[in-house]
């Protein structure tokens, strides 16, 4: 028993000395609030561009003080990492091209992201009438095959409704649908019903 204890003591004496404890002040030292806020913003900006209001909301949810958030956002804006005009332009271009959204929908999205009305309007107005018409026509052409078994009146209602949900105004929607359906054969008597439907932008097309 004594021999085993002696061996144990000898091994212990040859072991590494224990690490000194870390002072509490190093473990509990508070992080600089502005550094924390900046890190939050930069992490969000690595996934996609964001409006200033989006970043401010994210900082508020993390309980960053308003004055700290304002200073950090001002510095990011000075460095061109936060730019609502550039953000709005990029958002409009991407959402119009890839999602097929019309001007009304795009303006609504920018408003919900806290972009000022004038900035949003400038970005949305970059989409010309011809561009919006072409994108709406592409949406209609893609949907038309699924409506082949329906008469023109039913197809027209569904197509106009689809464009309305995408944020196209009635003038664009009715013009595009009329043009697309005019290229399809029309059953006898269906052409008059279709003309009546598409002649009145205020008709029930949902």
Beta-strand fraction estimate: under 5%
- The total of helices stands at 12
Subunit organisation of the chains: single chain
Measured as a percent range, the helix fraction is: 55-70%
Beta strand count: 0
Alpha carbon gyration radius? 31 Å
Broad shape: elongated
Rounded to the nearest angstrom, the distance between the terminal CA atoms is 92 Å
Question: How many domains make up the 3D coordinates?
Answer: 3
Secondary-structure topology with pairs:
Blueprint: H1 2-14, H2 24-27, H3 33-45, H4 52-61, H5 66-78, H6 84-99, H7 103-112, H8 117-124, H9 129-143, H10 152-165, H11 170-182, H12 190-199
Helix pairs in contact: 3-5, 4-5, 6-7, 6-8, 7-8, 9-11, 10-11, 10-12, 11-12
Could you please describe the fold and organization of this structure?
With 206 residues, the protein is mainly alpha-helical. It folds into three domains: 31-82, Arc Repressor Mutant, subunit A (Orthogonal Bundle), CATH 1.10.10; 84-127; 128-206, no CATH class. 67% of the residues lie in helices and 0% in strands. The chain contains twelve helices and no strands. It has helices at residues 2-14, 24-27, 33-45, 52-61, 66-78, 84-99, 103-112, 117-124, 129-143, 152-165, 170-182, 190-199. The longest helix is centred in the middle third of the chain and has 16 residues, at 84-99. The chain is elongated. The chain starts with a helix and ends in a 7-residue tail after the last helix. The model is unreliable at 202-206 (pLDDT under 50).
């Amino acid at each position: 028993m004594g021999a085993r204890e002696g061996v144990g003591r000898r091994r212990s004496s040859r072991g590494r000395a224990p690490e000194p404890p870390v002072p509490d002040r190093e473990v509990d030292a508070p992080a600089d609030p502005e550094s924390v806020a900046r890190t939050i913003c930069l992490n969000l900006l690595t996934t996609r561009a964001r409006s200033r209001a989006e970043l401010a909301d994210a900082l508020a949810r993390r309980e960053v003080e308003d004055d700290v958030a304002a200073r950090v956002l001002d510095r990011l804006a000075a460095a061109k990492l936060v730019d609502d005009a550039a953000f709005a332009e990029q958002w409009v271009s991407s959402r119009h091209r890839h999602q097929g959204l019309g001007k009304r929908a795009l303006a609504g999205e920018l408003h919900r992201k806290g972009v000022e009305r004038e900035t949003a309007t400038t970005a949305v107005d970059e989409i010309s009438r011809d561009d919006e018409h072409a994108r709406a026509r592409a949406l209609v052409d893609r949907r038309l095959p699924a409506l082949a078994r329906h008469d023109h009146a039913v197809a027209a209602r569904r197509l106009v409704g689809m464009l309305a949900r995408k944020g196209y105004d009635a003038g664009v929607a009715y013009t595009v649908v009329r043009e697309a359906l005019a290229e399809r054969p029309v059953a006898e008597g269906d052409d008059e019903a279709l003309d009546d439907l598409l002649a009145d932008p205020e008709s029930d097309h949902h």
